[in-house]
Specification:
This protein has four domains: 4-255, Heat Shock Protein 90; 299-489, no CATH class; 498-553 and 571-628, no CATH class; 636-719, no CATH class. It contains 16 helices and 25 strands. It is α+β, with helices and mostly antiparallel strands.
Length: 720
């Protein structure tokens, strides 16, 4: 076999090579699977086709792969992307294979290193093989990808940072191609610097540089047949689509197959439910018919039986909601017009709000069309004129009230663009089913410009968004918050801030009934007397349940030492038994409020009590969810931001300048941490941490004690 890996010296550039540091954008271990599914859906043959993705795990023999030779190992030894090149000494190699069917495969001409074929069509082989970090999908609203970097996750999940593919092109008489890509990073081997990517395929002399060799995909049918056999692929020659081969993959995928299935279903439940996607994970087949059962069976075995049953029933309700969302009648369709910079929603903004409220309370599925305008920056226009092109667009927001028996809050809601769920936008703070369905071209492109590289979240601060849209920041910020704002409106409840909800809460009436005043959380377990409830004329006499604090991810503190301020961030740890005891006592308190004679109290007193009870119920839901998740919030990605505050500054973080301070300046700032957290990045006024458990602590020292009162801190975190 003449095919081998080709390593390109740094001074030569073949194609569009870039060291884009994808490990900083795709830190999630399951991103490789999500990326493969997204690409498969994007590559479906026909709109109505159901894409089938097959994931299987095999062992192949090293002797059958002679291209993994000493020269390849030598480059791996010098690569900062590879922790231990000795895996190449193994005689058997674990490979993960992901194959899609009812898809097009890679289209174009594999023997041309250009973005267009000889006929002027898009050459997707070029983008797959040689172009990393381009925006070739950014202008396609019906395509999931945007940054042209996702396939690098295939490398990141290989211990040798390498993947291979086998493509059968449906648009070109099922033409076959086989290729390999290694992402090794810039490295020095034998006194020579090399470009980050190396390629496996057919070598051909470079037309520009005679002393180097280019590599093109293997297209010889006999050679491909041999490679397909050695890698134990399932694809036949006449089956169009793409097969991805990842050697030395993250073995966790196979060992924890049940968790892998659960993760996939959590993100891609909608295309599966809508018969757009079918999964084959070794011998397990998951489609719309068994999706619910598979999801429910994947619950933590320690989860309480009552929670399991209610969770299953609520999932059933949610899936019924999703299936029926496309059949909403005209009578249950409403509209709201929003504008960039809008902060709140009022009922007057919504057409026929009273009808909407009535339908919602009757548990009818409603659709609210959110109309707005985007202003695209015209890059062809004179810069000084700042010309923009206005486009009207919309997003459809479907809602359905929870059934009356549901006393738990689940992330049974979705924020989707096309078929793809932006899953980190799901909320637990709304006791209603909702679907933010983004299908219109200009709304889709707006959201696409705001997405992270792995498509799990959107941010109003995305550079692509700022570059391409005049009003993008405000629109994205409002769309992200819309479900919560809408829920608060329709439930006619205020957002109750935790530090306010703990004030003046533990009241007792004169007879001793109900809940006694206390400052200690442990005192909530005291037994209540059963004396009669007396009539009351003041709020202080009414039975009001205690509100315990919302669970915290972490807490912060600061102290001064030798004229320097140290800011501390540390995780908060909770014990399962303590939480269970609180829940038991809390339910008893709520039950006691249901026994009072409401006719004996003034309306304003009852309103206050009911509002507290409602808040209390939400807190109980929060605690139950926490238990079901194993009593931990971790691991988490924590983002820290700081800025100087001052009189008259409404948002100091927007006013930050690098001239103020810079965390990357080691002369001023120092960090201290324990082994349960790593520093992912730090620059200017931002620090990003990856905290593995609640036992983490992190300190930053550098501000002077005279500055401490002028520094504002902001923390965000996301589950990993």
């Amino acid at each position: 076999m003449s095919q081998t890996f080709n390593f390109i010296p740094e001074e030569y550039i073949s194609g569009q090579l870039a060291d884009s540091k994808p490990e900083q954008k795709f830190e999630g271990e399951y991103d490789i699977i999500y990326e493969c599914i997204q690409n498969s859906i994007d590559a479906k043959k026909n709109t109505d086709d159901k894409v089938s993705l097959k994931i299987h795990f095999k062992k192949v023999y090293k002797k059958d792969l002679p291209f993994l030779d000493e020269n390849f190992k030598n480059h791996c030894q010098k690569s900062i992307k590879i922790s231990d090149s000795r895996v190449l000494d193994d005689q058997q190699i674990d490979v993960m294979i992901m194959e899609d069917f009812s898809t097009t495969g890679i289209t174009g001409d594999p023997e041309i290193q250009d973005d267009q074929t000889d006929t002027g069509k898009v050459n997707n082989y070029f983008y797959m093989n040689y172009s990393f970090g381009g925006n070739q999908k950014l202008d396609s609203f019906d395509q999931g990808g945007s940054e042209g970097e996702g396939r690098q996750t295939f490398c990141l999940n290989s211990d040798i940072s390498t993947f291979f593919y086998y493509s059968v092109d449906a648009s070109n008489n099922n033409k076959e191609a086989f290729f390999g890509i290694s992402y090794l990073g810039k490295r020095k081997v034998n006194q020579q610097m090399y470009n980050p990517f190396a390629y496996f395929g057919n070598p051909k002399p470079n037309k520009k540089f005679k002393d180097i060799t280019d590599v093109y995909p293997v297209t010889d049918s006999n050679t491909i047949t041999d490679l397909v056999k050695k890698f134990k692929l399932k694809r036949e020659k006449n089956q169009s689509g793409l097969s991805i081969i990842v050697p030395f993959y993250n073995i966790k995928f196979k060992k924890e197959k049940k968790l892998l299935i659960s993760k996939i279903l959590d993100v891609y439940r909608i295309p599966i439910l809508r018969k757009k996607l079918e999964l084959h994970i070794e011998e397990d087949i998951i489609d719309h018919s068994n999706l619910l059962a598979t999801l429910v069976n994947g619950l933590n075995p320690d989860t309480e039986k009552d929670f399991k049953e209610k969770h299953k029933e609520l999932c059933e309700e949610y899936f019924n909601f999703l299936n029926a969302s496309n059949e909403v009648t005209t009578s249950n369709s409403y509209e709201i017009n929003i504008y960039a910079g809008q902060k709140e929603i009022i009922k007057e903004d919504i057409s026929n709000y009273d009808n909407l409220l009535k339908a919602f309370n009757n548990r009818e599925i409603c659709k609210v069309r959110i109309n707005f305008s985007v202003r695209l920056i015209d890059h062809e226009a004179n810069r000084a004129s700042q010309n923009t092109i206005e486009k009207r667009t919309f997003v459809d927001f479907y809602i359905n009230n929870y059934p009356g028996w549901a006393d738990l809050s689940e992330k049974l809601n979705d924020f989707i663009r096309g078929p793809m769920s932006i899953y980190k936008l799901r909320k637990k703070n709304t006791q209603m089913f909702w679907l933010m369905d983004i299908q219109d071209e200009h709304a889709s492109l707006l959201v696409k410009n705001a997405e992270q590289a792995n498509h799990s979240d959107i941010t109003a601060n995305n550079k692509k968004l700022k570059r391409n849209y005049k009003n993008g920041y405000a629109l994205i910020a409002f769309l992200k918050s819309f479900p919560s704002k809408f829920y608060n409106l329709i439930k006619n409840e205020e957002n109750i801030i935790d530090n306010e909800s703990t004030q003046d809460l533990f009241k007792i009436d004169s007879s001793g009934a109900g809940i006694r005043e206390t400052d200690e959380l442990s005192d909530q377990n005291d037994e209540e007397s059963e004396g009669p409830v007396e009539s009351s004329s003041s709020v202080s006499d009414i039975v009001i349940p205690p509100i315990f604090e919302s669970l915290k991810y972490y807490e912060q503190d600061s102290k001064e030492t030798d004229g320097k301020i140290t800011f501390l961030l540390k995780g908060v740890k909770y014990k399962k038994d303590e939480i269970k005891n609180i829940l038991t006592a809390a339910q008893n308190y709520i039950d006691s409020t249901s026994k009072i004679e409401r006719s004996k109290y003034q309306d304003k007193e009852l309103v206050k009590m009911d509002k507290k009870v409602s808040t209390f119920k939400r807190r109980i839901i929060e605690y139950k969810d926490f238990i079901s998740n194993g009593c931990t919030f971790y691991p988490r990605r924590v983002e820290i931001e700081a800025a100087y505050d001052g009189e008259g500054i409404s948002n100091p973080f927007r006013k930050y300048s690098k001239d103020d301070f810079d965390f990357s300046n080691d002369d001023f700032f120092s960090f201290n941490k324990n082994e349960n957290v790593k520093i992912d990045s730090y620059n200017e006024n931002k620090i990003t941490l990856i905290a593995q458990s609640e036992d983490f602590h992190f300190k930053v020292t550098g501000f002077g004690d005279d500055q401490s009162e002028d520094v504002r801190w902001k923390y965000r975190s996301y589950s990993i």
